[in-house]
Amino acid sequence: MDEAGGALGDSPGGRGRLHGRLLQVLGGVSAVAAAVALWQFVVSGDDPDRDPVSVVEGLETLSVPEGASPSGAVASVHASSAAVESPSESSAAASSEAPTSASPSPSPSEEVTSAAGEESAAAACTASLSVEKEWDDSVEVQIEVVSSGGVALEAWEIDLDLRDVDIYHHWNMRELGDGRYGSEDWNGRLDPEENAVAGFQAATDDGADLPGSVPCTAVS
């Protein structure tokens, strides 16, 4: 048997079959190597040193914990993608939350209140008359001037141009002309609610009626 086998291996036909099998093995190895090289080229691209892309830009790659179900991993991916806000939505939210710089116009009630406050802060006065003595054809009248504004006044003027009344004597005030009289240097300045007293004597006609007050002008 050994001699027969040795004779078979040394024969030309035996050597041909051995060479054919070796060629088949080498061809298979070459095909596998070519497939591996092609796969690396497709995955890595033109740059063999480039790492495979495993992260989508703008999103983190989610790893599935060991033992977690595939449905839970899919739910996590949906939650992560929902948290990414698009630029258009961000711009719309920013524009809707931007405060307006235009100030609202004042209402009529606010304007009236402002005007009343300005009036109360201005100087003003009132002048009242009271008859102290009365004769058949003349009277003696006292005048009380009160500072009624929110600030002090420096001087005051009153209008005593009265019908059927002819003033022939007066005190604590000076005549300005045309029936008007003004304060003296020493009793002109009045703080708020402070008063000054003046008076006059006048001839009157029958049926003359003196008013209870006369116009007063504050000088600030």
From TrEMBL:
InterPro entries, alphabetized: CBD2, CBM2/CBM3_carb-bd_dom_sf, CBM2_carb-bd_dom_sf
SUPFAM superfamilies recorded: Carbohydrate-binding domain
Region described as Disordered: 63-120
Origin superkingdom: Bacteria
Bias type Low complexity, positions: 65-120
Residue stretches making up the CBM2 domain: 125-216
Protein name, per record: Cellulose binding domain-containing protein
Annotated organism of origin: Glycomyces tritici
